[in-house]
Design a protein that fits this description.
Structural class: mainly beta
CATH superfamily: YkvR-like
Distance between the termini: 34 Å
CATH class: Mainly Beta
Number of strands: 6
Helix content: under 10%
Strand order of the largest sheet: 1-2-3-6-5-4
Largest sheet: 6 strands, antiparallel, barrel
Number of helices: 1
Radius of gyration: 14 Å
CATH architecture: Beta Barrel
Shape: globular
Oligomer: single chain
Length: about 100
């Protein structure tokens, strides 16, 4: 599995399927990144608490993305990771804040 590091505030995530794109109307485009990552039962509370904030300092060294960003799109395979041993697949898209 090929992963890349992404920092959301001070938390490091090992992500897969990293891609960069733009969002917004022509002439008002904003940089955005999308990626997938795994969340375990043990990390569920901390990750969801972080994501509920909605705005973050995001660093993706591999593509030179370092921005304050908002959640543009978000999905998960599970909405409850309270069961011991559960692992969820998360997809997150973050767009730079203007």
């Amino acid at each position: 599995m090929n992963t890349n590091p992404v920092w959301i505030d001070d938390r490091r995530f090992e992500v897969m399927n990293l891609r960069e794109f733009t969002v917004g109307a022509p002439g008002q485009e904003r940089r955005a990144v999308a990626f997938d990552f795994k969340v375990t039962h043990d990390d569920y509370h901390d990750v969801t608490t972080l994501l509920y904030r909605g705005t973050f300092r995001v660093r993706v060294p591999q593509i030179g993305f370092e921005q304050v960003a908002d959640i543009h799109n978000y999905s998960t395979s599970l909405d409850n990771l309270y069961d011991q041993g559960a692992v969820g697949d998360y997809h997150l898209e973050l767009a730079e804040r203007r």
